Amino acid sequence: MYQITFTIQNFLYDYFLSESNYGSMYKATFKDDYIMPMKQLKSYILNGDLEFLNKVETLIKLKHMSLVNL
User: Fold this and answer.
1) Of residues 22, 23, 20, 44, the one with CA closest to residue 11
2) Which of 2, 4, 25, 49 could connect to 18 by a Cys-Cys bridge, CB 3.0–4.6 Å?
């Protein structure tokens, strides 16, 4: 978990991919050269946005080789 937290806190504009209502998407590269997109959420999203929480619950249930398990 430390590695993910550290990565999120050190995003650079060079790795910016897109922006949505929920936050910005960045390209994250880990020590083992594993690359995946990561979304940095806007702070107000965590204040009880029911639609967002429903999407997270759906993502947790999904199993696919292209998705990282939450």
Assistant:
1) 23
2) 25
